Each structure stands twice: as C-alpha cells, then as structure tokens.
Amino acid sequence: MSKKSKVKKPLGVTVLIRGIIFIIIIVCAVGGLSLSIFNKRMMEQVRNHLAAIMNMTIARVDIDDLKQCIETKEESEKFKELTVFFDQARVYYDIDSLNLIYPHKEGDKIMMMQVLSGLTPEGRAGVEQIADVPIPLLGDDFTAFLPEDFLVESYNNYINNREISFSTSDLVYGKNYDAFYTIRDEAGEPVVLLTASKSLGYITSVMTKYIVITMGTIFLLSGAFVIMMVTWIQYRVIKPLQIMGDEAEEFQKRGEVEDPGILEMDDQRLHQGDEVEVLANILKNMSLSMKAFVARLMESAHIMEDMKQEVTRANNLAMRDALTGVKSKAAYDQQEERLNLDIKAGDAEFGIVMIDINCLKKINDNYGHEKGNVYIKKMCTMICDVFAHSPVFRVGGDEFVVVLVHRDYANREFLIADLKNRMQEQFDKTDLDEWLRPTAAIGIALYDRKNDENCDTVFKRADAAMYENKKEMKACRED
C-alpha cells in the first residue's frame, strides 16, 4: 500500500503544485500591492504638481490686459511676456501642455478659440508639429481638433468653475490628465479657461518598467525556491512548508501600506542546518527585496513631493516685492479676494491706506535710479515701522497700500499722524541728502458695510483721498 500511495500521490508532485500556488500568491500580492501604491502616489503627485503650476500661473495673469487681447486678437507686451513664461513653465516643470482657451457658443454649437499655449522651443519653431495640426496662436479656432465630450466639459468648466478641477481626456495628442481653472474678472464673469495637462503615457511607462522588474525578480527567486524544494524534499520539509504557506496567505491579506517594513516576512526560526533553512532564508530575502522595491517606489513619490515644494517656493517669491521685501501686487490681489469673502460673510472690518511717494521722478532724474531705490526703501521702512501690525504692499513703482486691521485699525488716526510727523522730521533735516528725506501723499478709507459692496470701492475711495492730499501738498509748495 505504501508503494501504491507513492505512485498515486508522489510527494514531489504535491510539493511542486503547492510551490506553484505559492508563487502565484506572492506574485499577485506583491504585483497588486506595488501597482496600487505606485499608481496612487504617482497620480497624487501629478495632481499636486499641476495644481501648484496652475496657482503660480494664475498669479501672473493680468486679467484686464488679457481681455483686451482676446477682444482685439492682438498681442500686448504683457501677453508676450506671459507667452515666454508659459513656454518656460512647460519645459521647466515637465508638463505636456499649459494653455489659455476661450470656450464660447455660436448658436447651439460650442466653439473653442486659442488664446495662449506654452510650447517647447522645437514646438514653437514648428519642428515637432503634428501633421494637419497648426501651431496654436491667439485667435485661432481649433474646435475641429477636439472631441465633443472635451468641448462640453471645457465649456461647463468655463461657466461654472470656481476652483481647480481635474479629469482625464483622450485627445489627438494622446491620453492626458487635465487640470482646469476659470480666470474671472472683478465682476466674477469668466474671461478665459486655464488648462494644464500631463501625459498618462509617462506614468504607464514608468509603472510598466517597475512592475516588469519586480515580477522578473519574484519569478527568478520563486523558481529557485521551487527547484530547491523538489530537489531536496524530505519528510520534515512538509511542516515548514505549511508554516510558509500560512505566512504567504497572511501576506496576501495585507492591504495598502504606508510603511514597507511590514512586507518583510517573519523569521520562522527554522534553524535546522539543512535545505529547509535555506528555503526559509530565500523567502526572507525575497521579502526583503520586495520591501526594498516598495521603498524605492515611495522614494520616487517623495522626490515628486520635493518638486511640489520647489514650485511652492517659487510662488512665494512671486508674492514678494524684489526691491523692498514687502508684499507684491499679486499678494495684494489675493488679500483683496480674502477681504471680499469676509465682506460676503459679514465679518469685515478694515481700512485701506494709499501712500504715493512724492518727487520720485525728480530723484531718479537728478541722482539716478540707484538713489531712487534708496528713496523708495527709506519710505517703505518708515511705513512698515508705523504700521507694524498690518500687511504692507508695494502695488506700483511709487505706490504702497496698507490694509489696516486689528490694533492698527483701532489706532489709525494716531498712526497716520505718526507717519506724517516722521516724514516731516526727515524732510526738515536739510543737512541730509535729498534721497534720504522722502515725503508722500496719504489717503485713507474705511470699509462701510452699508455702502461698500467689495474691497475695490474702499480702495478707490482711499486712492481718491490720496490724490486730494497730493493736490493739497502741491498747493502748499506753490504758496
């Protein structure tokens, strides 16, 4: 009967079958886990990467100038500068497209007009031009090159979009992951649709490369494992194999992980000094290889996170005035949006101080722009010292804006008087060089919830008050 048992159910065949099953479990578990982690991380990083580029681009767009360009279909100087930025951003941040488009309806049909497209140097020269697809220029209609569903989606985003949205699309250029944002004017009306995209082909190719390497490694290690099992099979191998099978099943049950350390198999303590211990060590090393591979995947994700932080740092630089170090015009535009939200919520309490430096042109003409810059920085330092608890913005060559909040809002009359006194003290020091004695016209306006619908009306009243003050100062000098 023992012979018959050996013939009917050879131990080698049984172990071989179980070995194959074990290989399939390991391959499926690691392959699925690796694919899930890599795909999620890559898509998340692509989304964050596109969002950061979109925000940086939005800060550079002059809406009024862009509206004029769309209406006239003629490029302004700002438009040309924006074109250079789009081209550089596309190449430097490694994206497949960065566009401004104008979706509109003619009757019931959705039309798509090209406004601006970031191109590579080769694309701008027409070297990489796709057959029958023209280089996109301001005013071009390229409706025919887009599928109907993309036109509908773009138009709906243009009309309804209030924040950055994402989707996938399959265009003539390939399958992309797209980001959309509607740039609106001060009245909230849509002006143009900003889009950016990253080819999904790149993610697929990288993912395929890593999966192929992983699967090949697993198959090689697993094949060695099975050959050793069949060659050195013994009765006392059965129990350790059952233990290893249980560990494999547990490994399969492990879901998506943040720590690749749990991919390492537990030490089964099979210190028998024979082939079973060798097999156990192979499995241990295999799990270490898997852990190392997943760690490399996560390292790639961290690299993309660093890229996102670099974009964020670049955006922060755009929020600062290079000469004075105070906040820039772009930063003021964001501050204005926040104040408008406070106004809508009924929580607004603020004032705006407009400060226009006097005689800057005279300083530049008589002493040079270097002394003019000293003049500006001297005035800026004085403003920041007085309004120490409120944000200060340089919104023009000789214009500063202070948004009065909190204690500065409450003490505004004292602070305005203090600033005027400081300017007068400096102006009276006739022994100082002229560029060290800055003066300025000042205008202030406070938010009135009964009459002001938005921050811009407060700004305009402060600006008007400043010009009245400038007229008075000029009249006094003439007297």
Please give a structural write-up.
The protein is an alpha+beta fold and 479 residues long. The protein has two domains: 1-318, PAS domain (Beta-Lactamase, 2-Layer Sandwich), CATH 3.30.450; 329-478, Reverse transcriptase/Diguanylate cyclase domain (Alpha-Beta Plaits, 2-Layer Sandwich). Helices cover 58% and strands 15% of the residues. It has helices spanning 2-8, 11-58, 63-72, 77-92, 121-125, 148-160, 200-231, 238-253, 275-318, 329-345, 360-367, 369-386, 406-410, 412-428, 455-478; strands at 97-106, 109-117, 165-171, 174-184, 190-199, 351-357, 392-394, 399-404, 440-446. α2 packs parallel to α9 (275-318) and α11 (360-367) packs antiparallel against α12. It has a five-stranded antiparallel beta sheet. It has a four-stranded antiparallel beta sheet with strand order 7-8-6-9, sandwiched between helices. A hairpin with a 2-residue loop joins β3 and β4. The chain is built from 15 helices and nine strands. The model is unreliable at 1-6 (pLDDT under 50).
